[in-house]
Design goal:
The complex is a heterodimer. Chain A has 10 helices and 5 strands. Chain A has helices at 4-34, 42-55, 71-79, 82-87, 99-102, 106-114, 126-141, 168-175, 219-247, 250-253, and strands at residues 38-39, 60-64, 146-148, 180-188, 203-211. Chain A starts with a helix and ends in a 16-residue tail after the last helix. By secondary structure, chain B is mainly alpha-helical. Helix content of chain B is 57%, strand content 0%. The longest helix of chain B is centred in the C-terminal third of the chain and has 13 residues, at 70-82. Classes of the chains: A alpha/beta, B mainly alpha. Chains A and B meet through α7 and α9 of A and α3 and α4 of B.
């Protein structure tokens, strides 16, 4: 059970994030546009997400692949307009940045706070992990969307890591009734491997798919089974990305891309 | 089943997940599963489920969270078997 103090702190964060959202969101989108990023077929992507959001009975658990540190911002931008988020703020998903990557200075802390982030300590104590899961469970139960990267970290190979994923997404599915699991595959057409940020001017392939997660088991077994279903779906989406990139000539795919796609400035998390 | 026998079975269950196999050969109850045996933390759930299968028990989430060392695993198994 989440402590009252923590629950109140999350409510305060939600209110402040909502109040500052117009400034925050415009700033983020300007920054993304300044880098020249574009979302391929953004209208289709948003239409897909709108249809899912309209028909789901419970909170949304977004599960996606992970290749750059700005994936969460790009996904939020791709899935809905700022107006949608402003009036349906529960759709603007909570994120889980690693504490040591995003909380090293005051500016980043404020940005994460207003961006509905719940920091996690990857190698934290049992109590810390339990509290992080408790926060996410509580947020989902209140109807808020939560975004999670099942791989836990940016894929070092550039492909979905089908061996080393955690079962956090499945655990949340098992604990919160009526969660709608939505898989999102996001990747720049010029993205060859993981990086800090996508290459300048990169166009983002985004695919959204709701899955009917199910398990005949309970507890950890259910969590494992559902997380595998999520990863299998993401894997199929990755194959479609490959088919999409393969359909382009290499020169088109990497057009106006600089070398940012392979900059490995961040130490492996 | 005695604790020594349980420990032996726990070691056998852990084997496929261990990166530091040398540490497994000299493992004692105090051996840390994550730090000493270098098991990927994402695989801890698989280990808990494998232990459930091996000993025909059910380990709840709280008990699973408490498993840090081999002795922790033995203690959880002994407690569940006693229930």
């Amino acid at each position: 059970m989440l402590r009252l103090r923590v629950r109140v702190a999350l409510q305060v964060q939600r209110v402040l994030a909502h109040l500052f959202f117009p400034i925050f969101a415009v700033g983020v989108v300007i920054a993304l546009r300044f880098r020249g990023y574009r979302i391929e077929e953004i209208a289709r992507v948003r239409q897909s997400f709108r249809a899912i959001a309209r028909t789901c009975r419970g909170p949304i658990l977004l599960c996606s692949n992970h290749l750059t540190v700005v994936d969460s911002a790009l996904i939020a931008w791709a899935l809905a307009s700022n107006w949608t988020y402003l009036f349906r703020f529960h759709l603007f998903a909570w994120n889980l940045p690693e504490w040591k990557n995003f909380y090293r200075n005051l500016g980043l802390r404020i940005l994460c706070y207003l961006g509905k982030c719940v920091p996690i300590v990857r190698d934290g104590s049992v109590e810390e992990k339990r509290e992080s899961m408790g926060k996410l469970e509580d947020l989902l139960r209140q109807g808020d969307a939560v975004a999670i990267f099942p791989e836990g970290t940016r894929s070092r190979t550039g492909h979905l890591d089908m061996e080393n994923f955690g079962y956090g997404a499945g655990q949340l599915w098992a604990r919160v009734p009526n969660v709608t699991v939505v898989c999102v595959y996001l990747r720049g057409l010029a993205q060859t491997t993981y990086s800090t940020i996508p290459a300048r001017g990169d166009k983002m392939f985004v695919e959204v798919q709701r899955i009917e997660a199910q398990s005949t088991h309970k507890g950890l077994r259910a969590a494992r089974e559902v997380t595998r279903q999520i990863m299998d779906t993401l894997y199929q989406m990755e194959q479609r990305y490959r088919a999409r990139v393969g359909a382009d000539s290499p020169s088109t795919a990497a057009a106006d891309a600089d070398d940012g796609s392979t900059s490995n400035e961040d130490p492996p998390a | 089943m005695g604790e020594v026998e349980i420990l032996g079975k726990v070691v056998a269950v852990l084997k496929p997940y261990v990166k530091n196999e040398g540490a497994l050969e000299t493992a004692t109850g105090a051996t840390s599963i994550l730090n000493d045996l270098q098991v990927n933390s994402a695989r801890l759930v698989d280990i808990i489920l494998a232990l459930e299968d091996e000993f025909d028990i059910e380990i709840d989430d709280d008990a699973a969270d408490s498993v840090q060392t081999l002795q922790d695993a033995v203690n959880v198994i002994v407690a569940q078997k006693a229930d």
